[in-house]
User: What shape does this take?
Amino acid sequence: MNDPQYIVRRLTPLECCRLQGFPDGWGETDYKEDLTDEEYAFWLEVRNTFAAINGKKTGEYTKAQMLTWYNKLHTDSAEYKMWGNGIALPTALYVMEGIADALNSRRALCPNCMMWGGEACFLFGSAEPVTACSVYKGKE
Assistant: This one.
């Protein structure tokens, strides 16, 4: 009897981009035929900074060398790495809005249940939520 063969389909870089909440093509670099003097100076500094951080040799590279280097920056593996090391924008926005709301309302964090004072709190696993746990009541 033959066992069924399963094939795992991997996400494409575009699907990773969309799952993280970014617009299509956000992580892609444009292919360039030539670099302006300003672009050359910028990318030379980027390349040398990256090399210095990683303990590699820095140097002066010609425009042609920098153009070749620039056009090889974008690879699928680099994009997968970027998406894998990132955080989804909607999640980051939600967390940051919650922090801003808490700071703006000057509510205190209950040291017992670790909920913000005035919010529903399930103290000691109770089935019914109480408004700020009994340990915290009256200390706002």
About this structure: The chain has two domains: 13-84, 108-140. The first strand starts at residue 120 and ends at 121. The helical segments are 13-19, 37-53, 63-71, 76-84, 89-105.
